[in-house]
Amino acid sequence: MIKPTTPEPTIHSLFEPQTGTWQYVVADPSTHDAVIIDSVLDYDPSTQKITTSTADSILRLITSHSYNVTHILETHAHADHLTAASYLAARLAQTTQGGTRPPIGIGRRITQVQSAFGRKYEVPEDERAATVFDTLFDDDETFAIGGLTARVVHLPGHTPDHIGYVIGDNVFCGDSIFPPDIGTARCDFPGGDAASLYASAQKLLAMPGHVRIFTGHDYPPASRGAPVPWTSVSEHRERNVHLAGEVGVREFVERRTERDSGLAAPRLLHQSLQVNVRAGRLPGRSADGVRLLRLPVRVEGAEW
């Protein structure tokens, strides 16, 4: 008897150039059920304006393919862009029969991140409770996307809450591994750990060589040109600048730590974390009816 092959999804890769973010719509071609992974809200720090043109392009794609979105997924609490998860959930609830709102899912360790950054930015407790997310996934938990099965894999290192999603012969790894000429993600955020990232990367590279690793970001050098959403496991084993060859954990940690020490903070670090621990919900209004985010101020020289 010939063993049936695993059903493969239809994958739409959408690149957001301002933050270098890859967003994904992953669908079961037989049922048209679909999920959205790591969506982006547009944010202009010079005007403090949030707009939805990037998220609206996802909605247009969903409409054009008659997809039924069953989940909106996050790989982690991003520190470089604002998630559009809550906006998309609200808009999809307006357009689906019965007003069904697709659940927003993330790994269960998001509570650690909510606690740490909620206190730092004084986010009200009801706006950073675990319940702002609809689903908190356990490690190795599975769920259905139509006739497809998705599996959750814990990939800590970049952040402690970080997870990936294995769907068919594809893994959506968020900010764990980048394209081979860039390497891996930074580990200098609170809760980040280079040794943990090395273990997560080895978990990915232990998958069969034909499996495609879809990344959360790309920052293509001029020598390469266009951003790429995925690279096979076998290509990463051969060419990833941080992982190829016989790189051990000690060497990786030394390289990653040295690299991270020279990196500037993400441009939207503070805005992103305050929105993303809320699952993309906007801050509540002040007494004057204004929505506010908290930003740190650095004083050079003596304070007064």
Automatic annotation (TrEMBL):
GO terms for biological process: glutathione metabolic process; hydrogen sulfide metabolic process. It comes from the Eukaryota. One of its GO terms (molecular function) is metal ion binding. SUPFAM superfamilies: Metallo-hydrolase/oxidoreductase. Pfam families: Lactamase_B. Residues 20-217 form the Metallo-beta-lactamase domain. Coiled coil: none annotated. Keywords: Hydrolase, Metal-binding. This is Metallo-hydrolase/oxidoreductase. It comes from Aaosphaeria arxii CBS 175.79.
